[in-house]
Amino acid sequence: MNRKLNSAAMLLCLALGATAQDLTITIPKTDSTANRCYPVKSETTFSLRTRITCNTKGPFSVNIDRNASFATEGSWVHISNDNKPITIDSLQTAIFDLTITPPTGTPDYRYVMPVYIKANKNGSSLGFFTPALFEVIVDNTPPTDITLVKRSTSGSQSVSIAFDAFDEMSKNYSDMNLSVGRKGIKQFAIALKDQAGVTRATATCNGTETNWEKTLSSASLLPGTTYTAYVTATDLAGNYATSEGMSIATAPAIPTGLTATGVTYFSTMLS
To answer: Quick one: which of 71, 99, 173, 239 has the most CB atoms within 10 Å?
Structure first.
């Protein structure tokens, strides 16, 4: 039955002098990311601009076919100007802005949404134009696999730490857009605390940095002293989690005020 309806629609469009290429719909914001939108938590609102372009002689009256496009997640999407039809002719473009809000309780998932054109020409409805696509990545879960590793380059008032983390949902976007981070991680915050729990040194590291490693230094760090390091990883959607503490010590102080005597190739006496 559907094949018969589609065939009838195509015959009607051909009779009206229209083809599937006469109108095209695009979503420029997602062109370079395999149609994927920046990850969001549920209840977070973001916008996309859709552009319907007329590539032949019109005029066409166009808008977005809401029922065909958002049959399942229709409550998430608001279309600008109440989705009222816009008339366009050759080389003209109609713009419809989409405001999207995944509701409370939306599970983590990649929700693919086609955006279909509803078009009318000479009083007849046309309906076989290729849809645009966008993918909503809902990410409510904090990063996992957060690790800390000591480096051997610690000084008497500094320590060096490497770290890592992973976020399953946000990674789906960062894999397509390395300019936002790696492994779905947007940023790390590192804190070094003394035995009383007082923060003595901090550092941050963007997820885009090549090496996830930082040296924390501060005049308040004491030589030969053990501290506890923590790293907090934040994903692209804003979820965050903090690692367990890792003990790490500054190097002993360099001796001062000593005099060297009896210096030879083989030995030196310090006093």
So the answer is: 173
Same domain, 121 and 149: no
104, amino acid identity = T
Q: Is residue 133 domain-shared with residue 7, that is, in the same domain?
A: yes
Domain around 211? 144-249
Amino acid type, 65: D
Structure tokens at 260: 């060297």
pTM: 0.84
Say whether pLDDT at 71 is over 90.
no
Question: Kindly report the CA angle at 180 between 152 and 149, in degrees rounded to 5?
Answer: 15
Could you read off the pLDDT of 85-140 as tens digits, one per residue? 999 999 999 999 999 999 999 999 999 999 999 999 988 888 778 999 999 999 99
